[in-house]
Amino acid sequence: MVPLLSMIVFLPLVGAIVTALMPRTMPTVPRVVALGFSVATLALATWALAIFDVDGGYQFVERFPWVPQVGIEYHLAVDGISMPIIALSALLTVLAILVSWKIDHRPAFYFTMIQLLAVGMTGVFAALDFVLFYLFWELVLVPMYFLIAIWGGARREYAAIKFFLYTLAGSVFMLVGIIALYITQGSFNIAELTALAANPDTALSYNLQFWIFAAFFLGFAVKVPVFPLHTWLPDAHVEAPTAGSVLLAGILLKMGTYGFIRISLPIMPEAAASQFWMWTLGILATVSIVYGAAVAFAQTDMKKLVAYSSVSHMGFVMLGIASGTQEGLDGAVFVMVAHGLITGMMFMLVGMVYERTHTRVISEINGLSSQTPIAGGLLAFASIASLGLPGLAGFPGELLTLLGAWRSDLWPGLVIISALGVLLAAAYMLWMVQRTVMGEAKGVVAKIRDLTAFEIATLAPLVVLIVALGVFWSLLLRYVTPAVQTVLSGMGV
Amino acid sequence: MMWLADNAWVAVALPALFALLVALVGRADRLVAPLLGIGSAASVLLSGIAVLLTVAEGRTPAAATIRWLPSEEGILAIGWSADGLVGSMLVVVGFVSLMVMVYSAGYMAADEGRVRYYALLSLFLAAMSLVVVSDGLLGLFIGWELMGVCSYLLIGHWTIKPAAAAAAKKAFLVTRVGDVGLLAGIVLLWSHAGALDYESLAAVIDTLSPDILTTVALLLAVGAIGKSAQFPLHIWLPDAMEGPTPVSALIHAATMVAAGVFLIARTWPIYELAPLATYVLLGIGVATALGAALVACVQTDIKRVLAFSTISQLGFMFAALGAGYWGVAMFHLVTHAAFKSLLFLAAGSVIHSSGTQDLRKMGGLRKGMQFTFEAWTFGALALAGIFPTSGFFSKDKILYIVTSENLPAGALLFLTTAITAYYVARVTVLVFFGPRNSRKKPHETGLAMSIPPLILAIPAVGLGYLAKPSIELMAAEYVGFDLPVALIATGVALLGVAIGVFLHRSGPSADIAFERRLGGVWGWIQAGYRLDSVVQKSVSRPSLGLARAAYRHIDRDLVDRAVIGVGSTANFLGERLRRLQNGDTQWYISMGFIGLIVLYSLSVSWDRIHVWLTGGG
What we know:
The complex is a heterodimer. Chain A has a domain at 274-493. By secondary structure, chain A is mainly α. Chain A is 74% helix and 3% strand. Chain B is mainly alpha-helical. Chain B is 75% helix and 1% strand. Chain B has 27 helices and two strands. Chain B has a two-stranded antiparallel sheet. Chain B is globular, with a radius of gyration of 29 Å. Chain B starts with a helix and ends with a helix. The relative contact order of chain B is 0.07. The chains are: A mainly alpha, B mainly alpha. Chains A and B meet through helix 6, helix 8, helix 12, helix 14 and helix 17 of A and helix 6, helix 7, helix 25, helix 26 and helix 27 of B.
């Protein structure tokens, strides 16, 4: 049997090593090498997606003892929740390399970092052993730190350190949780721990579940990020290079919400269903939705606006998770994928506009549609997708999370307040479109050229997927729904 | 034909396909985009005719469902179904859009954005058809929002105009306030009824509690109020006139704005069991009808007169719904679509020919624009409700049912009828009679633009005689002709016309005299009771201020400083720990163990506190 998952996870590592060994005298080779490896990875991930059996539970299992003395294993497998996200991260890696095509400052190091990031990003979603999971989780930090600190904007060092410290602080709590689980249940295996939790004889006491949930909560909530742990995100996004922003918003944020679905809910089911945690998650989700949207409204920088909109959209994911219902979790995973596509596209477009105008200040950009109709049109398209227009990918997930939250024991008021977030999203997105896309092309916009065929080709797959998922929800839900059913039935829901 | 009736989805698919074709090959030749646009309108019209013919034969057209969510038993499914109501709506949408597409071939001939224009109009048709043929609220909502975005993009068609961009955003946002209500209603309904398609809903609706039904009815009504520009969410429609005039005719007069009325007609079983909601509809309808009619009297922009008139006429439809007769509301929707799109298209020709939208600068256009004038006259008579035009019949029924339901409300609608007749007369006189106030010589604007208003004049005049068959085709309760009401209505309408003609016979001077005498009140009415600035002051500005304050004070001052504070404490502690340990790994492990000890002690000894925290969970 071909170790398909290992290949998907570690092919970028081979690519990273090859890229790192490139001599400095060939500055344009690293990007070609990186593109080659990432396209090959994407092909493998697409193949895996195609042969994946939606009703088959965990698949492509690879399990070997690694440190048998303490029961650490090399254990990779995917289910219908992690499979689509791995495919998404393979896709976004390719696109991230394409949007970085013109990087000329230390290109070999840059493309090494991108590929290293890909290893961590796919690994987290494939790992079923806690130690392995944690390794991948921490591995992501390092390349992202360098991407921000070396290729970032003016305040890159501040942003990079803030990003690093925030998420590191979160992971320390997660580590505490992992060790606590190991000591109490004697296993590092996520699937085993899930099975133990599902059996009333072997389940942890409610008290212990409650506090371990708290530890994991801190680790994951920083990553999502949930209000009030979100302030690293806008800084990191603004300073990061375009590819960094795309991967950060597209995949890294999803690690947090994935953690809730894969670990917190199934391994600490009683805690997850407790009034305290349900309310905490529900309220923080709602606050993130409304607060993120409101603050996005106040932004003058396009990238920051998109960053805060991410806080708001990830709030919907958290709302779905808090609901603990089939629709809610279906919706949560749907938003995760859709947000990856839409926000990825937003950041890529903002980057392309920035390359031409050298500004991201909303009031300095105007009339894109008359000067650069393709860029303006695509920016309007991405904005409309982001505000949740039915028929595009942003809508189904938000609808499902709202339906799930409404059906759950959460206070209906939270759902109504969250629905207002949909309204606010329209407000800040259309306001931005009005000021940047509409109007007369003046100032910095007056002389710029429209997108090149290369850039359009980079964005095209996202446009296609955003429309396809918006029209045919089942393309994604056929993977997600059975896996969510498994998670929920283990929790006794 | 039969096949078309059984496959109502074609009315969605073909315009969508044509929209795509326009975008792809619309640039090939000048005629390609308009022809494809005409094709999408024709496909909607043919679908509608097929459905109506089938229903007239006494057969129900086929319906089908496509499941979207694999797991749950068809809870979130989307499908199509057709009946007399659907057929009538498709015919209205198809017919008006056909006229508008033809008209646009002339009106937009020189526009740079023609291809985008026709693509969006076709996409709008697909969305509108989706609203109409969907077999449940989910599909309706999807089409509903798509319509909103098409309307947004078409209002902002001239992207270079700042006013157009602002109006487009305003239209989308204000209607979205309504949409949040609609969405909440859909979620609430689904959580109690377990389904969203009309057929299953009809089966379980009796089992729901009256409170739930009333709440759902009110929430759906919020959506309808937003889309159909009823008080207090009407403020977007007058601004929407920044879009091209054919768009105003199709979307912002005849079809999309009527979708609210259609929504309530389609979900009527809910309203039948929610009397409180129908009272609200009646109240809002009457208030909007009267309030907007008054504003229409003092507008100086011809399109704004028509916009407020549309709001007012939609108010009549809401009043009919509130009185409990959705068939009557739909019939007025049909006649209004004919005569109001006629008036808009004629106004477009007038604007095209005179180069202004300002009534005070027009006058005397009768000579030179004979066709347009004739068409306009038929439309104006219908809007004023003068016998024997269609508006007379449909309005007569509304006046009758509202008066029998609630006498004061009926009286207010009679008053509105008089005011309507007055402003119609005023506009007609100011535009077509009296001395010419513009230097441009009036002229007809080519066949593509003069023929559609004339064709629309046929239904605008004649539809009244089809009242009985069309309401019965929709399987709604028919209301007969009532002679006393008709006589009084005709009397007040003629009075209104007489006053309008008399006051304005010598041009815009009467307005100036009024303005001088009324002073501030005039300006207050002209600005739509200044509701816009109220919203600006009470909603828009405070929200922006709040958002900025949240960013500055919560995000930067509070959270960030706290984090930096924690960070430096941790740094300090870390330095201390580093002196004790050497290396990060050990620091991690020690942190882990300290944390573990804390966890254990918490879980063991803090029992009581956490029982308190979790409420005994």
